[in-house]
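Re: the pair you flagged

First of the two:
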Amino acid sequence: MHSRAAYRAATPPLHVLFATWHAAPVPLGVLLVASTAYIVGVVRVRRRGEVWPVLRTIGFFGLGLAPYAVIELGFLGTYSSELRWAFSTRIALLIFAVPAGVAAGRPLELYSRATGDRGRARLDRLLATRIVRITGNAMVATVVIAAVFCLFLTPVAGILRVNPVIEASLGVVVPLVGLAMVLPMMALGAVHTGTFIAIEFLLAFVELLIDSVPGLLLRLNDTVLDLIPDAARAVSWWPSTLHDQHLAGDLIWFIAEFADVPILVILMIRWMRTDRAEAKTFDDLTDEEYDEMTRAHLHRPR
């Protein structure tokens, strides 16, 4: 049994959470590049005489870049290398929340409309590649995220957290991994049949339960799994090593269960759109074409 001193249950007060900021060059660079690229895209669309919805721009900055700035420059980014729960929460939000927010700004559609026919053709070729079609599959997305979360159960998490170069690079790599799954998922609805999306939806719902397992194991385990010594601080709210790990498990569990919902919503929207498109295809058939298709279906080899 752990003593009270060994399990010091403490969390930072609200004023510490909201008042802790630091200027990190990597996330500041990401914010500058992403903001500039999006604004240039909007300007080009308007110069072509087209309208780009203001709500999409607000979504990109308000739901995508603003949360990224808070995560990377605020408390979570400041204490990511010292607190397990700050590190794990940061990674979970970077792979879940930030890509979903960026996707609200429709960056792929902006690129397509800003670059004209050539850009649209390049984007279509990219979306048609096998790797993109794989990453745009919700089943793959949930498995990848579950695999990332499983790293928190190993000493690898400690290595990623305490190495300053790796820890800083995660602020770029992790959101890109999330975007590689979310953006194709939103764009590939037209190339998947309704039956495929229905199966994808059901399997993704099952995978939703799998994502919670790493958080549960972190919460229930009374052994420090990353093998990193306690980064003790002379402040009253600093948690013990074990409580730090348990907090990480609680937050991963919550974020995984809550953040899988947008994936299911995206799949449901894709399913409805594909169903309407398939229904319209049948409605556009003449009676002769419909009869011919029916005969071909009934007489095809079993």
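Second of the two:
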Amino acid sequence: MSARIDAHCHFWRLSRDDYGWLQSGDPTLASIRRDFAPADLRPLAAAAGIERVVLVQAAPSDAETDFMLALAADNAEIAGVVGWVDLASPEAAKRLETLAQNPTLKSVRPMLQDIADPDWLLTAPDTGVLNALDRLGLRFDALVLPVHLDRLLRFAERRPDLPIIIDHAGKPALGADADDPRHALWEEGMARLARETDAVCKLSGLLTEMRSDQRQSEAAALAVLRPIVDKLIGWFGPKRLIWGSDWPVLTLAAPHEGWVRITDALLDPLSPDERAAILGDNAVTFYGLGEAAA
């Protein structure tokens, strides 16, 4: 099988003080409220056979993007960076022109899940900035909740040439009651995005959407996740799914090796080529990662 790629991980340095979600004082985040660097992930990645990673922004700031690109320059395993720019500011087009001179920048991500207005994606971004994404060959990571999926569909229809990837499988409300309306929003939204657009979906971030009792064992987690992943495979197919760890946020729910085992079990019914696509090859294609360094 081709080398495994982690298409979604984070490193952060808290002294910059712009990780609002992480530095809010939420006690449930205490275990990850510290610095995380490439050296922390390296042994975990090696144990899982992961050779390269895509580093994703965790703060809505220019400083975050600069920080990640600097890390990529010094750490060969960082094959791509998903950065942040202020899509609502016309000045961001010029910023993108500068950033895109660094070939490690692959995509941008507004933190839509943290923006109060669910219509922000349709109303706030500057047209010139979105045109710059197209012109510069960049991609769009969609950090969305089920409520955003119909908006994301309309956005994708307006920007058919912009490659879009849905982070964390659109964050299904796995821990919610059966009659929660988010379930229907997720099913309809993800099925339509798969059917009506070329969007790609990340198989990541799912364990942290579950209640603790749903993941008290790997067998329990598998029972919850198998129907979800089967739907995603049915909708998007093995060529439009990409694996990621969401480490270190993942560790709020399970160790890195636990998520590796769970996803390996979920993908086991697929052919070797299909597994290789989800676990690495599709990330190379979508993010344009090129060949690994010798």
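The beta strands are 4-9, 50-56, 78-83, 105-108, 139-142, 164-166, 200-203, 241-243.

-B.
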